[in-house]
Amino acid sequence: MASGGLQLLGFVMAFLGWIGIIISTAMPQWKMASYAGDNIVTAQALYEGLWMSCAMQSTGQIQCKVYDSLLKLESSLQATRALMVASILLGLVGVFVAVTGMKCMKCMEDDQVKKMRMAVFGGVIFIISGLAALVATSWYGNRVARAFYDPFTPVNTRFEFGSALFIGWAASSLAMLGGSFLCCSCPRRETSYPPTRGYPKNASSTGKDYV
Description:
The structure is a single chain. The chain is of the alpha+beta class. The chain has a domain at 4-27 and 75-184: Butyryl-CoA Dehydrogenase, subunit A, domain 3. Helices cover 53% and strands 10% of the residues. A five-stranded antiparallel sheet has the order 4-3-2-1-5. The longest helix has 38 residues, at 112-149. The chain is elongated and about 65 Å long.
């Protein structure tokens, strides 16, 4: 029962982490314009994401523009996109594989060992999915930080970390932690003992008395 509860907890955590990765990928707030230093505070906030750039007015109105051409984007941004999409697809596969191996599911009940191995395999997929998202978000955040502290970057074009990065970091960590819990349900090898030898039965008494 304890291993089943840990397995269920791991799946819920990994699933929530996968949902968070999807939300982080779709959000446009991967980096936001910085108004620190000598910047003049304007009446709008600028955001940039993986798929579009947005400007939010002081009235609350948001205007977004999707990037025109894929070939015009920086190679680092294209790589970040690819890693996040790969993370989402891996997470989708991990969901189906882990569900198959859950103890609360009816499928594959005849072979419990294979069922538990499916849960472990799903956990490994979740770990790889979270790792891909963690690499993508960390790489993007490193680029934002380096551009911010670069003395050759104009002050009015500096950006800071957006909320999508923090969601991505939290979601990838949750997916890897949940996948690790799923891997803890690995079936233990049973110790094989040699077959016990039967002792010979006592010979039936012949009815003779010995003095």
